[in-house]
Design brief:
InterPro entries: CBS_dom, CBS_dom_sf, Diverse_CBS-Domain. By secondary structure, the protein is of the alpha/beta class. It has 10 helices and 8 strands. About 35% of the residues lie in helices and about 20% in strands.
Length: about 200
């Protein structure tokens, strides 16, 4: 039954002192690094989703438990319906909806304040694969978006969400506060901020 497999010879690890970390094998990221370095790719990591009918406080707790600041909203059929961010829930959007509709804040659902897929602006996977971190950074700075959805086309021309790029991931990669980057007036200023570890 096991004829196609073989025993591997186990090695002695008593003389091994070091643990390898990504920072030891990857060059430091810069604005010229490939944009794919900051994309969460759903072929490798599953998207964190939330049903459209969930109450917003439950959705916020789910975000916290998953260590994300954005959730992909799915409808009753499991299809992509939109996105909702921590800012949407904790900001004035939920309160305004409750006030306008005469309901308690606890009754506001994800579907009420999410950003619908009908209004989401995205980048294609091809654009991202051909771009640098700086290109994406400049695009997000110009749009004011904290997240950018990445789409591609699967078999038979089916469009799908392939991944997401978040401001916080760019910030983590470059080791610079994204707020500081948003305040920069020129691209040269952004490069200077990155080169000096967040200081002008």
């Amino acid at each position: 039954m096991f004829q196609e497999f073989r025993h591997l010879r186990l090695q002695d690890a008593s003389d091994v002192d070091h643990l390898l970390a990504p920072s030891q094998v990857r060059p430091p990221a810069t604005l010229r690094s490939p944009a794919l370095a900051v994309m969460t790719d759903f072929t490798e990591i599953s998207p964190v989703t939330v049903p459209a009918g969930w109450q917003i406080d439950t959705a916020l707790e789910w975000m916290k438990s998953q260590h994300v600041r954005m959730l992909f909203v799915v409808d009753d059929h499991g299809h992509f319906a939109g996105v909702i961010t921590a800012r949407d829930i904790a900001g004035g959007k939920a309160m305004a909806y409750a006030r306008q509709n005469g309901i308690d804040l606890s009754d506001v659902q994800v579907r009420h304040i999410m950003v619908s897929r009908l209004t989401i602006r995205a980048l294609t996977y091809e654009q991202v694969a051909d771009a640098t971190v700086g290109d994406v950074m400049l695009t997000m700075q110009g749009s004011g978006d904290q997240h950018v959805v990445v789409i591609d086309e699967g078999y038979a021309g089916v469009k799908r969400v392939r991944g997401v790029i978040s401001a916080s991931d760019i910030s983590r990669l470059l080791k610079v506060s994204f707020e500081v980057m948003y305040e920069a007036k020129t691209f040269a200023e952004i490069e200077k901020i990155v080169a000096h570890g967040g200081e002008l």
